[in-house]
From TrEMBL, chains A, B:
Subcellular location: Membrane
A biological process from GO: sterol biosynthetic process
PROSITE patterns given in the database record: EXPERA
Membrane-traversing stretches: 20-44, 56-77, 116-134, 141-164, 176-199
InterPro entries documented for this protein: EBP, EXPERA
Family of the protein in this entry: Belongs to the EBP family.
EXPERA domain location: 53-195
Name of protein: EXPERA domain-containing protein
Organism in which the protein naturally occurs: Glycine max (Soybean)
Single GO cellular component term: endoplasmic reticulum
Example of a GO MF term: C-8 sterol isomerase activity
Length: 219, 219
């Protein structure tokens, strides 16, 4: 039986099969697919006479939605990905990422829970956000706010549980900073910016409404 | 050393001190303090010429905010509550509640994380919601929506992690249904109702804004 590279060393992973793809293979497939999606959504969004900000947001929601559904969705429903011997891309992604956080290979309940909520609820909701922005739905901001807040809550649970459990799930400090910190940083910064923007837009809408009717009835 | 009553039986709790207060003592103190707060907020809210719905919401936010800060805040920052020999009320609450979910006594990382976010962020935010409703702030709905969504996310993490870990943390089925299910049910039903109401109010505000200016600029 092959020894796995993950920390803690006594993590029990019977049937572990080592990575077939290199880190650069895995990252370049992810980067180029993401770039393809973003480019397609950018071109497509040009048809809707939207502001540049709205078009960037449509790209983000398409990218993050597909990441949640495909990448994270595969993880949630594939508890034995570390045994995969076929070189299947999605299994390779999680074998590689587990070097930065072995709780993925070890099937930590907190990680599986957060990824489950993200893949099943936030993924489809992100794709709905692309549609909502494109068609100018009245629920566009509150939907984007809800998903962003969910992403922030998930990331908070992800890091706080790790700290409480000793924050020692990385093979080495390169993987710690590149995968565990680096790969997740976008899901703190971007949802935070979007949540603040939506909060402000929603407050502005209520001020408009309040100014319009002297006695604000809906409030 | 006293044997603890919790499940799993091999849960290691050195220095455990048994409950001093009875279940009816603990519940009656909680019920009467809650009733006192709700009554005071109800009377106080009468000064603000608010609708009955808004006054009920102010009572809810005061109740849930103080529960988050005092009860759950104590738990988060008192890892050794199960050793308390003084009969201190808040320690007794968590010794008793642990009969329904021993992850509290066992300091499960997922539970501590959710309770931490709830006590530190959602607690103060709930009290801010009382003020926001009373003074008709433009951020009133989005704030209530954000807290409700946080409560729902927290409850989802709470139950899903338990299920993934075998759902066997209750002393018996009475405590399972009374504490683990019953005591948490309000924090599913009420946040869900409030979140849906806020969602609708916010959509309505954008429809008003959209109808007012033919070319919706803010959107």
């Amino acid at each position: 039986m092959e020894a796995h590279p993950y920390v803690p060393r006594d993590l029990h992973l019977p049937g572990y099969a080592p990575c077939f793809l290199s880190m650069s293979n895995i990252l370049s497939v992810f980067a180029s697919s993401s770039l393809l999606i973003v480019t397609l959504v950018w071109i497509f969004s040009g048809r809707f006479k939207k502001t540049k900000v709205d078009r960037v947001l449509m790209c983000w929601w398409a990218f993050t939605g597909l990441t949640h559904i495909i990448l994270e969705g595969y993880f949630v429903f594939s508890p034995e990905f570390f045994k995969d011997k076929t070189g299947f891309y999605l299994a390779e992604v999680w074998k590689e990422y587990s070097k930065g956080d072995s709780r993925y290979a070890g099937r930590d309940a907190g990680v599986v829970t957060v990824e489950g909520i993200t893949a099943v609820l936030e993924g489809p909701a992100s794709l709905l956000a692309v549609y909502a922005i494109a068609t100018g739905k009245s629920y566009s901001y509150i939907l984007q706010f809800a998903i962003s807040l969910g992403q922030l809550y998930g990331t908070a649970v992800y890091y706080i549980t790790a700290i409480l459990e000793g924050d020692n799930f990385s093979t080495n400090s390169f993987y710690y900073y590149a995968y565990y910190i680096g790969a997740n940083a976008s899901w703190i910064v971007i949802p935070l910016i979007i949540a603040i923007r939506c909060w402000r837009k929603i407050c502005a809408a209520f001020r408009v409404q309040g100014g319009q009717t002297k006695k604000p009835k809906v409030r």
